[in-house]
């Protein structure tokens, strides 16, 4: 399943050669768990400290302790990336939504227009907030947070929704700026 022919970035930043032991170990773990090393990680391989900082933030937001499920966090990633038209993240995180939900139709619809998905009130409110934060963060006000609270989200949950949305807004811009391409394997996962 390894994707060895992908070019992780059009910027063509040279990877550290050889990779530092921690980076090489991390890439082996990715290969074992995912069957590939995500191109976003390969793109960061030019600087071990930047890779570690990116990975630590990603792992905290997407895998760390939260009242948001892994699927909900991936849904936020897809919706933000769809709004930003980030090819890399829509494909990569769309694959995660397919895997976690077991529903390719849902994942593909989410990637095109989440408003067409059959969402419960909680999920719709969460994604509406992530979309608003992405499209016009300066318009977010207390009434937006109130809607989240009414949908059952605690203030810590609102922080987590915001942090995931903000992270993917940043990552989308780096992926677009560097012409990062998704691993080809992502297109076929959970189909």
Characteristic key phrases:
2 domains, Single alpha-helices involved in coiled-coils or other helix-helix interfaces, mainly alpha, 191 residues, AhpD-like, disordered N terminus, 9 helices, globular, single chain, 64% helix
Tell me what you see in this structure.
This protein is an all-alpha fold and 191 residues long. 64% of the residues lie in helices and 0% in strands. It has two domains: 43 residues, Single alpha-helices involved in coiled-coils or other helix-helix interfaces (Up-down Bundle), CATH 1.20.5.810; 118 residues, AhpD-like, CATH 1.20.1290.
What is the strand content?
under 5%
CATH class categorisation of the largest domain: Mainly Alpha
* Topology pattern, helix = H, strand = E: HHHHHHHHH
Domain count: the total is: 2
Secondary-structure map:
Elements: H1 21-34, H2 39-43, H3 48-63, H4 70-83, H5 87-101, H6 104-113, H7 121-136, H8 142-150, H9 155-177
Can I get a quick summary?
This protein has 191 residues and is an all-alpha fold.
């Amino acid at each position: 399943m390894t994707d060895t022919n992908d070019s992780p970035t059009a910027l063509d930043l040279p990877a550290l050669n050889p990779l530092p032991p921690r980076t090489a170990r991390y890439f082996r773990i990715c290969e074992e768990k995912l069957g590939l090393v995500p191109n976003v990680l390969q793109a960061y391989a030019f600087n071990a400290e930047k890779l570690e900082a990116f990975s630590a933030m990603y792992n905290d937001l997407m895998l760390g302790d939260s009242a948001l499920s892994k699927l909900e966090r991936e849904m936020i990633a897809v919706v933000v990336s769809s709004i930003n038209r980030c090819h890399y993240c829509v494909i990569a995180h769309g694959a995660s939504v397919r895997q976690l939900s077991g529903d390719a139709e849902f994942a593909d619809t989410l990637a095109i227009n989440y408003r067409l998905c059959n969402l419960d009130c909680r999920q719709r409110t969460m994604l509406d907030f992530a979309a608003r934060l992405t499209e016009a963060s300066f318009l977010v006000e207390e009434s937006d947070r109130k809607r989240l609270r009414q949908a059952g989200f605690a203030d810590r949950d609102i922080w987590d929704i915001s942090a995931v949305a903000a992270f993917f807004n940043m990552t989308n811009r780096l992926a677009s700026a560097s012409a990062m391409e998704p691993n080809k394997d992502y297109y076929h996962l959970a189909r």
